[in-house]
Write a structure and sequence with these properties.
Helices cover 47% and strands 15% of the residues. By secondary structure, it is an alpha/beta fold. The strands form two sheets. It has a six-stranded mixed beta sheet, with helices on both faces. It has a four-stranded mixed beta sheet with strand order 4-6-8-9. The longest helix has 20 residues, at 111-130. Mean pLDDT is 92; it is low at 1-16.
């Protein structure tokens, strides 16, 4: 399997700047632009570009540290106003859940470990959807494939920016399962329950332009221009930050994504996963091969 090269995560002026209060991480590349109060987090999972237990634990630790750093509320003096969730791997945002782990746990009937993994996933989702309570706007920058849990992770951000050639989708139905870590909750609030169900049950990949027209993607960027789209969005939000933050609070009041909702859906997912047949697991194994073809450097 070929090892892919990492992409240069930021312009030269921003390299090397970190926030030591946030700690150190092995599968996250972190950079901070103090002038914009903009924090970059590029996913660098190893060995495959999926949400393995290590990167999930690191994401949850990072987001808890960001919330502690800013404090509760939206103080104008908070050190972080924006966080960008992106990838260090060219052509891949994230390929989703750790399917190799799923298959092993399902075959072993290991309900407890499967549930523990799923809870780590929804903890990451819940952190993302509540970052704005601490004055942080999370921006997902998709530059390549975002599948399954990778798509769910991007959906959990307040703003989803995708480059035109990016492909996003939820393939879980192909092995007789559903995406249980937030897909329905997040998609139904963006495009309505019926459209969300159609997308989940289709199992197909969608182009970024199609998703932009549907209202799933917030900003459509030309290929190679994703970072510029981030800076453009930051500038626009800063001009109307008070109104935008207030509207997010209104949305949370009307359509909250609660921990209890995510937890209850995960319990349904765990039960469904443990009912997969040998035929379903063979199909899952095929998708494991796709995750394995891209190997982090």
């Amino acid at each position: 399997m070929a090892t892919v090269k990492l992409i240069d995560p930021l312009p030269a002026a921003a390299r090397g700047h970190t926030l030591p209060e946030l700690g150190e991480y092995s599968q996250l590349d972190l950079y901070y632009e103090a002038e914009l109060r903009l924090h970059w987090c590029r996913l660098h999972p190893k060995p495959q570009p999926c949400f393995n237990p290590t990167i999930l634990a690191e994401l949850n630790r990072l987001h808890a540290a960001l919330k502690d750093l800013n404090g509760e509320g939206a103080s104008p003096d908070a050190p972080v106003r924006f966080q960008v969730l992106a990838s260090s791997l060219p052509g891949v945002f994230n390929l989703g859940g750790d399917l190799r782990l799923f298959k092993r746990l399902i075959e072993a009937g290991d309900r407890a470990t499967l549930r523990r993994y799923a809870y780590a996933c929804i903890e990451a989702i819940h952190h993302s959807v509540t970052l704005h309570h601490h004055g942080i706007t999370q921006i997902a920058l998709v530059q390549g494939d975002a599948l399954g849990g990778g798509f769910e992770g991007a959906l959990s951000a307040q703003v989803l920016i995708a480059e035109r050639s990016s492909k996003l989708g939820l393939p879980e139905v192909l092995f007789n399962l559903f995406p249980g870590m937030g897909a329905y909750s997040l998609l139904s609030r963006r495009i309505g329950p019926a459209a969300a169900e159609r997308m989940i049950l289709s199992g197909r990949l969608y182009g970024a332009e199609e998703l932009y027209e549907m209202g799933v993607v917030d900003v459509l960027a030309e290929d190679g221009q994703g970072e510029l789209a981030v800076y453009d969005y930051v500038q626009k939000e800063n001009r109307n930050r008070n109104a935008i933050q207030a509207l997010r609070r209104v949305r949370d009041r009307c359509q909250p994504v609660t921990w209890e909702e995510l937890r209850d859906i995960v319990e349904i997912w765990v039960e469904a996963a443990l009912k997969l047949t040998d035929r379903d697991l063979r199909m899952m194994e095929r998708l494991v091969g796709r995750q394995s073809r891209a190997k982090a450097g």
